[in-house]
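Kindly inspect both lines:
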Amino acid sequence: MSGKKILFFAGIGIIVLILLGSGIYAYTRLSKKSPAPIPASQTAGSGEIPGSGNSPGAGSSPNSSQTPSVQSQIPSSWLQKYFGETVCADQNVCGDNADPDHDGLTNLEEYKLGTDPNNPDSSGSGIADGDKVHVFNLDPLSDHTAGILKYTDAGDLKYKYNSRTHQPFTAEDLAKIAANIKQYGLHEPTIMTLGPDLVNFYTNGGGVAAGGNSSPTEELNRDTQRADTIKQISFALIKYQQSNGSYPDTNDFTTMIADIQPILSAGRAINTTDPLNTPPYIYGYQSVNSGADFKLSYFSETQNQEIDIDAAEALQEYSKDQEDQHDAQRQNDLQQIANALELYSNDNANPADPSQKVFPSETSWKEAISKYLSPIPVDPKTDQDYTYTVSPDNTRFAIQAVLEDPPTGDKGYVCSQDGCTYY
């Protein structure tokens, strides 16, 4: 082949390569998609930036309703134990910051402290868990923060004693308590246990506010009345259901009260009108599932929220109230029996040594003290005799009962020649 032909074909090849390269470059540029134009609604002033958190991200559609899961610091086993689910579905009930029992402790605090998130008084002391922790610096899991069984936390507070030191509260202590109440408030059952006078005392740091009762004290007094009224109404509803098979099927509070009035009238008189009786401070009632359940409500001034009670909560509180009444009766009965036994000892002691105690045998004790106590009390639930024991030399006795709702760590109540205490 001649040199001219070689040059010709080489030139053709170079031209082909140039054209091919240009085509590939053009194809590559054209095949890359340009960003879609931003709609006018998303330009400056629209408040949305494509690709930001204000608009759907890559891989999600505009109609996506995905809700990010809430991270909880509470183990699933704890949620399962108290709420029946391993992942909280309702943050208002089982969320870390929820307070379903209205005791002033969040669920996360309840988990860390070991208290019951569905029981405002885990220790059965009469003082709300949150008030023990945040207001009075007491042990929420014990009724004996002082470590002395015959002294209860509620008893110490009633006598204005600091259970941590078992000494009367100092002025500094009372000022701190007043500041805590201002910050955290007080909750049921603390308000009911202490009563208006002590609530006023602690709210005002041990003094009386200038010009009479302070506004917070007035609110606490009204909330005390509300809580007690709603509790008594809920108890009447429980009794109504036991007799009629359902709760009043109405959404009108006045109609419901008329239905249960015979039961209310059989107990102590209560005022069924809210102390303020202006919205939102109005008692409410709703029938649920055609009388199978109910919602009873009042609005709390101290907690600034509506407090709702359903049938399950009312039944639980009613059962506890019955247990508490039984236990109070047992303690009173044992104290009376112990007094009668002391009278028996005084009358039957050896004249030569009247200080020497003498008590009746285990088979004759009831007959022996019938002169001093008649009738002889029996257990209010079982109608059985209380357990009586006496030492072999008849100089010491014990009369005891098992309690239905004893303080945490205790089983019952016992009286002896040395006095009465929990055991």
Notes: The two ends are 122 Å apart (CA to CA). Residues 223-303 form one domain. Strands lie at 161-162, 167-168, 284-288, 293-300, 305-310, 387-390, 397-402, 412-416, 419-422.
